[in-house]
């Protein structure tokens, strides 16, 4: 668990990869040098440390509703602590998502939307939703890219939905990106490429999150909520996550 600086084999003709993060979640608590558990109101819910656990070598995010009717979500990030710049990131996940909730493994830049100009997104950064699922997808998922800003006039987006109901099983979800665009993978195989968004040159931090709305694009939350934590089936589990950056050829 933790940050590694391990050089891969160097090839004179092609870039090699340097492993910069290998997190197996095998400790009793998250490594605070890498991870944040963010708190506070977000959408129609509360980001809460009560939703975040390490169990049997896994990060488990449980979205639940307490006795006061407040829905608790988990928001685990490497914000301000760890970044990937034009590299790749892969996580092994499974999920069970109820309507009104979305879960995601994603990357974000602290300077996203800084210029407000979609043409400058390579420098500003791009929101890279590597694996995103909602309660309406019935175990399917999508990737999505957002750039420019979040204002309608300058917000650009591109996405693709994968209709296979894979959520109940463990799979490896990843992305690799450079100036040419983004290559999304599942279980080590490229399942989509996207060159619509500029290849982010900005440092990107990683996130594992759940979010909930009363009624939105992710569905409608049940009136009774999701039940207490020990009864909720609204879960997002992460077995491990790894990240790499390129080692330029000849170095």
Structure notes:
There is one protein chain. The chain has one domain (3-247): Jelly Rolls (Sandwich). The chain has one helix at 121-124, and strands at 3-7, 16-23, 36-37, 40-42, 45-47, 52-55, 58-62, 64-65, 71-73, 75-77, 87-96, 101-108, 127-134, 141-147, 156-162, 171-178, 181-186, 189-194, 205-212, 215-216, 219-220, 235-247. The longest helix is centred in the middle third of the chain and has 4 residues, at 121-124. It is globular. The protein has 251 residues and is mostly beta strands. The strands form four sheets. Strands 1, 2, 6, 7, 11, 16, 17, 18 and 22 form a nine-stranded antiparallel β-sheet that branches. Strands 3-10-19-12-13-14-15 form a seven-stranded antiparallel β-sheet, with no helix packed on it.
What keyword list fits this structure?
mainly beta; Jelly Rolls; 1 helix; 251 residues
* Distance between the amino and carboxyl termini: 27 Å
Q: Give a count of the beta strands, DSSP E runs of length 2 or more.
A: 22
- Summarize the amount of helix as a percent range: under 10%
In the CATH hierarchy, what is the architecture at level 2?
Sandwich
Number of helices: 1
CATH topology: Jelly Rolls
Task: Kindly provide the name of the CATH class.
Answer: Mainly Beta
What is the overall pLDDT average?
Answer: 94
Low-pLDDT sequence parts: 4-13
Please state the structural category. mainly beta
- What fraction strand? over 45%
Inertia-based shape: globular
Radius of gyration: 18 Å
Helix and strand run: EEEEEEEEEEEEHEEEEEEEEEE
Largest sheet: 9 strands, antiparallel
Overall domain count = 1
């Amino acid at each position: 668990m933790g940050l590694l600086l391990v050089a891969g084999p160097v090839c004179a003709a092609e870039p090699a990869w340097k492993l910069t993060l290998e997190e197996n979640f095998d400790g009793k608590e998250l490594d605070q040098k890498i991870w944040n558990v963010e708190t506070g109101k977000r959408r129609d819910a509360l980001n809460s440390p009560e939703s975040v656990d390490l169990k049997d070598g896994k990060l488990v995010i449980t979205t639940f509703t307490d006795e006061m009717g407040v829905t608790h979500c988990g928001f685990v990030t490497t914000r301000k602590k760890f970044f990937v710049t034009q590299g790749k990131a892969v996580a092994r996940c499974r999920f069970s998502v109820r309507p009104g909730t979305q879960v995601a493994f994603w990357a974000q830049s602290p300077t996203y939307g800084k210029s407000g100009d979609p043409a400058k997104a390579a420098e500003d950064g791009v929101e890279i939703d590597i694996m995103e699922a909602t309660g309406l997808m019935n175990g399917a998922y999508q990737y999505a890219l957002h750039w420019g800003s979040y204002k309608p006039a300058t917000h650009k987006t591109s996405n693709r939905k994968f209709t296979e109901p894979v959520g109940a099983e463990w799979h490896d979800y990843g992305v690799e990106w450079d100036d040419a665009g983004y290559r999304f993978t599942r279980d080590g195989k490229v399942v989509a490429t996207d060159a619509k968004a500029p290849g982010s040159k900005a440092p990107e931090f990683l996130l594992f999150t759940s979010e909930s709305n009363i009624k939105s694009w992710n569905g409608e939350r049940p009136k009774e909520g999701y039940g207490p934590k020990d009864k909720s089936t609204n879960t997002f589990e992460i077995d491990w996550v790894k990240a790499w950056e390129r080692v330029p050829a000849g170095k």
